[in-house]
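Entry 14. Structure prediction run on the chain below.
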Amino acid sequence: MKVNIGTYSFGGIACYLGLGPTLREKFERIKNLGFDGVELLPVELEENTVEEIRALADEFGLEIVSVHAKPTEEIVKKMAALGGKAVIWAMTPFNSKEEAIEVAKELDAMAEMAEPYGIKVGYHNHNQEFFVDQGKTLLEHLVENSSKCFLQLDCGWAQFGGCYPPTFIRKHKNRIAAIHVKENSKVIGPGPRPASRHDDTQQDNPFGDVSKMSTEERRKLLEEISARFDTPEGRKRDATQCKMGAPESNMDWQEIKNALDEQDFEAFWVIEREGFYDEHDKCIAEDAAYVHEHVN
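Output returned:
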């Protein structure tokens, strides 16, 4: 089984702002750490040409599988040219069944646009999408009111939010295009009702148009966003990410794989970490090795 990793794991928010390692540096480390493919970020598509990215991928023997970005035709075209599988909307605010249906319809329109290019459109969850409204979680309302979009189920955030991933995958068979592999040791829950998508203070992309920012502007925004995440709640979220297979882990990766194998197509696996239990590269290399060795 192929194991991929998101470039987000090599700098987090800084990578979204183009302030992390270069794409060459990331690809070299990704290959050396035992991965087969890469999930990109929007800034990497903006600041590198398709030809440059493809040359790097060929040089290091890596597959480009997806990008975390709001699906636009421009991004879909680039992902198709790179031989990718999906464009994944990493998050957008919605807080009720009605708003989930709005997002579902928007995703369906994006998916219809992407179909001629052979690219799937997906939505990536955190824990807040497991908030229950009118008897179902927000994520269930979304997927059940969409006919064309897929999910990239972040299994760690799902378990954190109170959802057992194998059950969710089986209930929504053939709707899971990918999973994010993130270890988890505690069920915290979805939290309070999320923000509304009609709240003017909420944004689909809190990072702005990075390509038009100076380095100084990017660094200032990084400081502001980092400060918002550097809270007791934020630190608690990252602290649940233990070593894969650790005694305190509440994840069953083999059963997740068993559930995915019941679909009519293969979902791709992407490792992502915000919290590290050990030195960064050692932690990530052990993640890749664990999946290769223990999930069949």
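Strands lie at 4-6, 37-40, 63-68, 86-89, 120-124, 132-133, 136-137, 150-154, 176-181, 268-271.
Filed with the rest of this week's runs.
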